[in-house]
Amino acid sequence: MSQKFLLPERVRRELEDYLVREHGIKDVDFKIERASTNGDNFSSDIYRVIVISGENENCNSPEQSPRSKVQPFRFILKTSPTVEIRRQMFNTTKQFFYEHYMYTVVLPALRAFQLQRLPEHEIFDNYPKMISGTLDFMQEYIVLEDMSTKGFGNVNRSTPLKFEECEAVFKALAKLHAVSFAYKDQNPSELKKLVEPLEEIVFKTPLQEDFDNFLRHKIVVAITTLNENEEHIKGPILEFQKIFGKSMIECTSEKTHAAILHGDCWISNLLFRKEDTPPKLDITFLDWQIGRYGTPIIDLSYFIFCCTDNELRKRLPELLEIYYQALAQRISALGTDANVAFPYATFKSHVKKYMKFGFGMALMSLHTISCDPNEMPDVTDVLDNIEDFGEFNKIANMLSERSAYKERMAGVCRDIVEFGYV
Prior knowledge:
Blueprint: H1 9-23, E1 25-34, E2 45-56, E3 74-79, H2 84-89, H3 92-115, E4 130-134, E5 141-145, H4 163-186, H5 188-195, H6 209-223, H7 231-253, E6 259-261, E7 270-276, E8 279-285, E9 292-294, H8 297-307, H9 310-313, H10 316-333, H11 338-341, H12 344-354, H13 356-369, H14 379-383, H15 389-399, H16 403-418
Antiparallel strand pairs: 1-2, 2-3, 3-5, 4-5, 6-9, 7-8
Helix pairs in contact: 4-5, 4-10, 6-7, 7-16, 8-13, 13-16
């Protein structure tokens, strides 16, 4: 980070009000530090705000001063960039609107729906609590609870996930997706109203020429990771190049059997917490700024092709079965017939037709995901100083020369063809 970040006065006031209102803490002092790993965030800047001192109004102990009784409250602050080209590249205004809408409208509605049908400990609530936020132009921000205080943490971005972790993510996604299918069955007009603002902001018609060229170039780079004798893999991928953009639009346009999705389901947007009694792995989903309404395969494919290696994907059919069984059970628990809402045959059809979405996302992002953050230029500095998209693309090309990318990308290319998804 090229310069020290100061806590905006508005955020300071809101956090002070929150601490007094919810915890009886006043006269606080804050410390702020960078909270994301280099390369994790492009459309926003993430900070951790730590309460380092304050007075507890509820402290009546004569042995301790009120200020010494304050527990270490921590928050996550997500702020919007002010550099215009960066805002344009990542559609900052829309992304902050979507994330704010997801936290303040969509997720609370899904929570309320579930609580009418399930015990609270069984519902999908795998996301941090939103404390405050604003959509004021050029000043957008969101303050969230810091899930590290509950034992959640990131895993190494460049290390492919293990089966146990993938299974936990697929089951958590099943819980999320199931709510929409039951909601649509039981209150279709309300769900329609709820998802109406969730328009696609990345793959939409008409596809801009420079973006389309960017996508086609990613195929050119990916092909170089394959061996000379792998023409049976290169052929289908070169055919996909002709329809890359169109295919991604097709994937995001499916609304007949659709669910509210996380929409940006990759490793840096996931937190894990392992519990021993009973043994389980809990998942928290971060960054809801590309909340989508579409086929569940968007979340599944994005995750599986960007966060795993070819050895793990040998068990992809098993993971898909685990997902569907968890989905069907949860839809039924919410009071809807899963065989009607999202039949198994339809699910299999969606897998065959839409898993290519994950291939597209791997083509766009695997150079970053597979890279050790310490080996990358400071992404924030780069984005705040570039003059056009071409400069950012040069960095992507540089990262694509690394052996880790080549190995991961070659594996994705082979799997996407051998599974018959392209």
